[in-house]
Structures
1.
Amino acid sequence: LCREHCLAAKHLLHQGKNTLNIVIHPASIAAKRRYDAYPYEVPTMYLPHMTPHYNFLRKPPADFGWDWGPTFAPAGIYGGVVLVGHDSVYILGANVRQQHSLSHDITLYFDVQLQWAVADQQAMICIHLADNHDWMAQQVVESSSEGQQIHTVQADPPRPLCDVSVVCACVQMKLSKPYELWWPVGYGKQKMYTFTISVEPTSRVDTQQAKSSLHCGSAALHMQSDPSNVAAAAAANDLQKLLHQGSSNIHVTDCSKHGNSTDNGTGRGFTSKDRDYSRYGSQHATVITRRIGLREVELRRKELEDGESFFFMVNGVPIYAKGANMIIADIVPTRADRHCYRSLVDSAVAAHMNMIRVWGGGLYPPQDFYDLCDERGVLLVVAEAMMAVPLYPRG
């Protein structure tokens, strides 16, 4: 279960070279400390080779060992580090929901997450089917001068998220036939539609005042593998002592300038199909795409003489479920690239499976995995959330 942290850095940056120091404490030691400090006993699973107390950390339980795997408790930057500078609105992400009517019309709901840089700004969200502008929807959104209320001009108010500068605007699009439905493997074709979602400022404040005078240069990321004496070295601002504790350096490129994705040198780290970092801070539209299949999935549960029925229907057709349980793609997370997930999904299809359950004791799979399932016609019946295996302490 990886976690993305987004932190404000403008007040910390200065002219010239900026260095980001990240200290990562050993997971087994951190778990033991939290367990010792907790006033109540929290049961967990123990195997002879397992490291205990995995339920006291937000970390995949399988990292601490399981009946099928070793105890490594790996820790590190699972992905990449990006420094983003912007003076305009841009898209953080988008989710797509769909509702099918009895008249065979389909309503798509695009929940678009927007990040605002300044108040008193308007922007246009435009959504259309790639290479076909017949399916199109657009909406104007506007930020308020208070910076806490952002409303739309042409639709219901969007929902504010945790950050008051981030809102989720819902844009609707109604589709009528002709269109093709998506089917599970063995029941029909897997037709996929690609939608382009863009946001562009339509009015803006004085951008010369909004722009920062700082230019984002390169940075050195120091990953600390042994926390002993780290606090003293950090307090003394002694970088050499920090490095002697055992660390590795990662060069973080200026994504705002070059538009590059950064990784840990393996080529399997942070990649992004959605965000064009070279456009952050520009006055142009930011664009992402979403590829979906048009389908209606229903779980049928009806009382029977003995118990109840439990089966799925896709587009009104009962589906005979044939599936498996996916734990983790690799015990070393950074080795699980798109090729690895493609092999797993293709193996499931070759075994005549049409459903997969994602186990809650591992990692959340990347978007590549879900895209491959859509392309191959595999349904995800259960994608378990974290904290799905043992009991957990409060808080």
Note: The chain is about 15% helix and 30% strand.
2.
Amino acid sequence: MEKANDSKILRVNGAIATDNSITLITKVNGKWYATRAKENNGAIAYENCKAKIEDNDDLIIDEMKSRTISAISIFVIVVLAYQITAVFKNLMFATIVTALCIDSVVWKGSILKYFNNFWKIIHKKERRRMHAATHKVLNAYEFLKSVPNTDEAKKYSSFTENCDDAKNSLGIVTLLFMFMAGWIDGRFITPEKTLMVYGIALIVYAVIFRFGLYKFASWYSLKKPTRHQISMAIVALEEHLELIKKVKEDEDCILGDEKIKDIFISYEEATTI
């Protein structure tokens, strides 16, 4: 979790949560290092790894699929917006198209990513709990400037602006605002009133963006974690900080350890919580 202008704590760049493991990732001197805490016969085990950024054909294929689905989704949304405008004589078509344009230009199609992530993770309860446990521990660490215990971590929020799911919520928040504005009856609105409506929406949205309230739209990726899962996140953080400290003191010592293995991750996984 990046914290600018704070030299008192080591920075964790990324985190990956699965059904039974939590992996923390940090970049030191151009190299990526990871610590994975996982279940081991009811206990918590951990391993330190060298992380490698991977760009493979599978990622390219997934990107091609995503673009195809994106084109179809945008087409359907635009057609439905046009139908609503035709029936109710409102601004729905104009506002939805505006929202999609803003999302495509500013957030690179985050609306599609939001729905894709929603359907991928909504039914994975254990992964959502692990994800929430990671957020709680990292939020507590950022605030306390030290590794929290389980009771301390429980008090902190499961939400964070640094989460990839939260960042992909910016587009959906824009879409919701434009959807609400779209119900205004177009027959009774003047250009001046249109500007006023957009101005008010822009101010409200700026407040939401400034205070990071959009992160709450990522609720679908989180679920209340158990004490054991929070403890696992604490072990991951504690051991990861120790690893990064050793790397900064003597990188050759870590690189010369035959027991440390390589793991392959995407750049997005390495840089988001």
Note: The chain has one domain: 14-271.
